[in-house]
Amino acid sequence: SGNYCNQGEIRKKELEQSCCVLGIPASDVTVIDHRDLPDHPAVEWDTELLATLILEHIEAKNINLVVTFDAGGVSGHANHVSVHTAVRYSVCTLLWVSPWGCRVLVLESVNLFRKYISFLDVLISCLLPRDALFILTEEQTEQAKRAMQCHRSQLLWFRRLYLLFSRYLVVNSLRLL
Q1: 3-state SS, residue 131
Q2: Residue 40 contacts by C-beta under 8 Å, 6 or more apart in sequence?
């Protein structure tokens, strides 16, 4: 639930506002508040528990595409890495991709230089192998920035730089899991 530093309720509201900006209905958002899945940048979550919760959401919402972090978690955040591990476990062990026709795309983590060269990374990304490449329009980039700005409690100085220079607000390269 994003309760790191006891900000869970604030962060839930920020998530709702962000999803609204992105056109995602509140009924499609599931906030997990589980004592064994604490929001903490250094805590790895239980793979089987998280995989079960993710699978329940996929089945309940009849989801046919999941976009998740890669093993680097984009920022190295342990919770992000745990999400990747749980999705990978689900695909490889629980085999939920085939029975329900759900595909999984994994967002590529890039080095620090590429992460902060904004639109210049489009050139690099076009030359490198990947299964999917999403290049956002200026309007989509502005919408993504507005959505991120809803997370006021998390807008520390380095995230403000992220809003200005991150390639992820312009280009995202993904691989099929």
Answers
A1: coil
A2: 4, 78, 79
8 Å CB contact between 43 and 78: yes
The answer to whether 168 touches 121, Cβ cutoff 8 Å, is: no
Task: Please compute, for residue 17, the number of CA atoms within 13 A of its CA located in the half-sphere on the CB side.
Answer: 15
Beta strands in 6-116 (DSSP E): 65-69, 103-107
pTM assigned to the model? 0.89
Structure token pair of residue 147: 């959505």
pLDDT tens figures, 12-65: 999 999 999 999 999 999 898 899 999 988 889 999 999 999 988 888 888 889
Specify the 3-state DSSP secondary structure of 13. Answer: helix
Domain boundaries of the chain, sorted by first residue: 39-109
Q: If you average pLDDT over residues 1-6, what whole number do you get?
A: 84
Find the helix or strand (DSSP H, E) in which 56 lies: helix 47-61
**Cβ contacts of 115 within 8 Å, gap of 6 or more:** 166, 167, 168
Q: Which residue has the tokens 């990978």?
A: 88
Q: What is the DSSP letter of 71?
A: T
